[in-house]
UniProtKB/TrEMBL annotation:
Keywords: Iron, Iron-sulfur, Metal-binding, Oxidoreductase. This is Uncharacterized protein. One of its GO terms (cellular component) is membrane. Residues 3-123 form the Molybdopterin oxidoreductase domain. It comes from Streptomyces microflavus (Streptomyces lipmanii).
Length: 411
């Protein structure tokens, strides 16, 4: 999409692709070259996957836990994630989490397929007892705006909010068990003020009833609009910050100072892409699917969102169904090089001939969980069709679409 906008002259232009300026973003600065996109500065221990912006692919997690030697992953902190369902070859990762870790902690409201392996599960409070400021989606908005919502319902005595849970984990990992959680907030505030070159007295001017609120107040004050937490509290329905405006020069931080449409790493991979274009396509390929009432493996345990159209079916075109002798609603067997699963067939012309679609995030049939609604509608895990060997060579990320499969009536 970005390349198309660039080639048609619609990047950083009204009607094309514009970039929002959130209330907690850096204040506008002069255009200047930067460090660029980091790739391959180091590699994973076992398979040598290149890092991308300091991260490694989930496909490497199981082998990094299993393989002996210096640097083996021995402890794991999981924050509201379910990689046993969302990573390729979930059975392998499931076994690694069950028997090869020295310690695991999960911050999760559910005992799910992953958190059931944790030594400690720390459930955060529900949304009704949590404050909310949208850092992520304000950075993808189509109109600049800002809103902060304090927790509508107070916490019970002795219950930690999510920020305190994270702070205590940070202190534990840092060997500072006796320090109060506020020490993490104080350090973050001091560091941010120093990096921004702001006067240290600013720390004393911050408002808020908690450390996270004080940190938010600081980010707003240092942001491009010079707002404060008090202003957001005075406008509970939000503040309109105006339409998006062209701003690419001030945010571009490539080494060249220009838009690098074809980075060297991608250019070097083009011969492989050309060879792939000459290969004969598989007769039937699998693509993923999302539902409006769920996201990944989330929300499957919410009764009001279950059933209806939120079901795990294999969508297949009528022509393919007729050719393969499949009946709508009947159970079919889907197999790939990585494994096989069974799911009901949904014959529909919403997918093209030669393509079948199975939603991801399902497969709630493993023992030891406490997700009764999800277990009643388990579905199947599409990642069981992937063995973790089909990967993008640049990032090591698992290929999740266009997987060659066969589909047959279930015996």
């Amino acid at each position: 999409m970005d390349v198309l906008n660039i080639l048609t002259g619609n990047l950083d232009r009204p009607g094309g692709a514009l970039f929002p300026l959130s209330a907690t973003a850096r204040a506008p600065r002069a255009a200047a070259p930067g460090k660029g996109f980091a790739l391959g500065r180091w590699a994973s221990r076992v398979s040598g996957h290149p890092e991308a912006k300091g991260e490694l692919p989930t496909a490497a997690l199981a082998e990094e836990i299993e393989t002996p030697g210096e640097g083996r992953i021995r402890a794991l902190v999981v924050l509201a994630a379910n990689p046993v369902l969302s990573a390729p070859d979930g059975d392998r990762l499931d076994a690694a989490l069950a028997g090869r870790l020295d310690f695991m902690v999960s911050v999760d409201p559910y005992l799910n397929e992953t958190s059931r392996h944790a030594d400690v599960v720390l459930p955060p409070p529900p949304p009704s007892q949590s404050a909310h400021f949208d850092f992520a989606f304000n950075s993808f908005a189509v109109h600049n705006q800002v809103r902060y919502t304090p927790a509508p319902v107070p916490l019970e005595d002795g219950r930690m909010d999510e920020s305190e849970i994270h702070a205590r984990l940070i202190l534990a990992v840092s060997g500072m068990h006796g320090a109060p959680p506020s020490a993490v907030d104080d350090l973050a505030i001091t560091t941010a003020i120093t990096r921004a070159g702001a006067p240290k007295e600013l720390a004393g001017e911050l408002t808020g009833e908690s450390g996270p609120e004080r940190r938010l107040d600081l980010m707003l004050r240092l942001g491009p609009y010079g707002l404060t937490l008090e202003e957001l509290l005075a406008h509970p329905h939000g503040i309109d910050l105006g339409p998006l405006k062209p701003r690419v020069p001030e945010i571009l931080r490539t080494r060249s100072g220009r838009i690098e449409l074809l980075p060297a790493a991608i250019a070097a991979d083009l011969p492989r892409l050309r060879r792939a274009l000459g290969e004969s396509p598989a007769p039937l390929v699998l693509v993923g699917r999302r539902h409006l009432r769920s996201n990944n493996s989330w929300m499957h345990n919410v009764g009001s969102l279950s059933g209806g159209s939120n079901v795990c079916t294999l969508q297949i075109h009528p022509d393919d169904a007729a050719r393969l002798g499949l009946v709508d609603g009947a159970t079919v067997r889907i197999e790939s090089a990585g494994g096989g699963v069974e799911a009901p067939a949904e014959i529909t012309d919403t997918v093209r001939s030669g393509v079948v679609s199975l939603p991801h995030g399902w497969g709630h049939s493993r023992p030891g969980t406490r997700m009764s609604v999800a277990a009643a509608h388990p579905g199947v895990n599409v990642n069981q069709l992937l063995d973790g060997t089909l990967l993008d060579p640049l990032s090591g990320t698992a290929v999740l679409n266009a997987i060659p499969v066969t589909v047959t009536p279930s015996p």
